[in-house]
Amino acid sequence: GSGRVYRSDGSGIIMKLDDFGNVSVMAGGIEMGQGFISALTLASAESLGITPDKVTVVTGDTATCPWDVGTHASRGAFTACNAAIMAAQKAREKIFRLASEHFMPRVHFALKLKKKKNPSFEIPDLNWERICDPSEFELKENVIYLKEEPGNPLLRVTLEEILREAHFKEQGTMIVTEAFYDPCNQMLDAKTCRGNLSATYIFGAQGAEVEVDRETGEVKILNFVAAHDVGRVLNQQTIKGQIYGGVAQGVGYALFEEYRSAGGKNLNPNFLDYKIASAPDMDFPVHIECVETLDREGPFGAKGVGEPGLVPAAPAIANAIYDAIGVRITDLPMTPEKILAALNKSR
After folding, report:
1. Architecture of domain 11-181
2. CB 231 within 8 A of CB 200
3. What is the mean pLDDT of residues 309-326?
4. In the beta sheet, which residues pair with residue 55?
5. In the predicted model, is pLDDT for residue 5 greater than 70?
6. What is the topology classification, in CATH, of domain 204-346?
7. Separation of alpha carbons 261 and 15, rounded Å
8. What is the pLDDT of residue 287?
9. N or C: which end of the chain has fewer CB within 10 A?
């Protein structure tokens, strides 16, 4: 028999805040052009309550980044962003504790100074219990304030000021948090082979309109539609880019790509001989629709969208070819030679 052992199917995050309110997010996943860093930046900023320009994502360094099962299976943003949300929550708790320690002396000093400058000024009766309670604070757009008095200048302070004060005082501290998100998967039962291998499931549908030349067997795609359940859109540009890229890969899979070998030797080892879809092959409109359903396990309701764009493309093209010529092609790629052979056989 055989088996495999690893930590889990999850992602780890380390979050470090510096004296200027900047945040370094260290992640074990990697960016492959799919928008991993963008999604993690937005999730970290939103969870902390800061602007995205304050976030720097560090990936691919095994010396500093925590363990991650890998960027694959449409899981990179799903697991890493969930871990970032958890790490951000820990950071916020520490930030608000520091803020609660900061505001009492700050407010006392400001009121006494105002009284000194204006003896007729009456010091207001403030709710000190609330001011000293970390749960009473909020952090948005790099500013910490009391929830019930968001406009009170005495009870507003920048995150940068709080972090710098905490660092440079005697026995100072810096905020570093970590979190590990492990999806709620259920491994397959050894006897029944039943289980739940994914924390969520992705759905999609695609349609293709094609034109087939019965004389040459050439297939021309005229129009393509892709609709996908993405949970919640974190970054519309990168999500649509992933789906478009999946469609492009699916076009190559359906019409061009074919591994050829003889005697164990690869006969088309490079892109000169192994044809993939390139820009001229994608000269047709691709209409993409992102359907939002808010997944209860996903970060902010999001789902993974790495692979779904590829999966239905070839079947959609195959069905369109069948609708055009009345002959079913069951072997990929659906080359002109195979189409002509199928047409001749059907006559």
Report:
1. 2-Layer Sandwich (3.30)
2. yes
3. 96
4. 23
5. no
6. Aldehyde Oxidoreductase; domain 4 (3.30.365)
7. 48
8. 98
9. N
